[in-house]
Amino acid sequence: MQHFTEKALKDITTSHAEIRFKYINLTQKIGVFSGNLRNERAKEFMQNGVNRRLLIVYRCVEKIFDLFPPDRIELLEENDRLDAEINLHAFLINIYGIIENLGLAVAYENDLVSEESEHKLKAKSVNLFDRKFRRLLNPHLRLYLSEDTIAKWYMEYAKNYRDALAHRIPPYVPPAALNDEQQLRFEYLDQEINRQYPGGNFERITMLRDEQERLGRANPLFVHSFSEKAIPLYLHPQLIADFMTIEELVNIAIANFYCESEI
Predict the structure, then answer these.
(1) What is the pLDDT of residue 263?
(2) If you write DSSP's letter for every residue of the chain in order, what string do you get?
(3) Spans of the chain below 50 pLDDT
(4) What pLDDT shows up at residue 142?
């Protein structure tokens, strides 16, 4: 049984195919735009920050789809699952990094940042989603960043998962999805394994663990900590949605890069 409906799977496949063209167009646009920036730090943050991170984000999407196609039912080999997690970690940290780099580029180009002047912002205070910084931005960009959809995506997902990765429980792709019968069998095997300790039969423990690892089917979700009530998310649709969100954010920022007033 598929994880996704036929329609959902078709939508995922179509959207995934579009990402390559969106990535190429966006990086070219950033390259041209960056070349016209006046401030060298702003230019660096766009060219070597945003654009370089976009390449990593794009490659992570491609690698995860390659390791774990959305129509896959069979359990992943453990190394493939771990490689998918590694790419997910790189994806999440660089999605957040693009937002940070973009904010710094806007700040430097508009002369809003200085480590010496008390009348300007410190670089560490720059955040596109911080109200104090946001009030200085172009009204159209400010309005976009204030909308519930993008603000929730940032606070409840992008920042939440970045902070979990950097400081708390790293997001992971569960090894299997179990139905009720398989869950009961898994728990029984767990009890049998625990009965072998201390000084148990290691050959039997290995046999029991092997059976556990064969249960279920591939699990296309990711989550960080259940104790924090983190909500599991579908991996493939979320990767696509995040890329599309970043594309939209970068495009709107470029179109409304310059502030109307200075500090």
Answers:
(1) 41
(2) --SS-HHHHHHHHHHHHHHHHHHHHHHHHHHHHHHT-S-HHHHHIIIIIIHHHHHHHHHHHHHHHHHS-TT--SPPPHHHHHHHHHHHHHHHHHHHHHHHHHHHHHHHHTT-B-SS-TTSB-GGG--TT-HHHHTTS-HHHHHHHHSHHHHHIIIIIIHHHHHHHHHSPPPB--S-B--HHHHHHHHHHHHHHHHT-SS--HHHHHHHHHHHHHSSB---EEBS-GGGTPPPEEHHHHHHHHHHHHHHHHHHHHHT-S-SS--
(3) 261-263
(4) 96
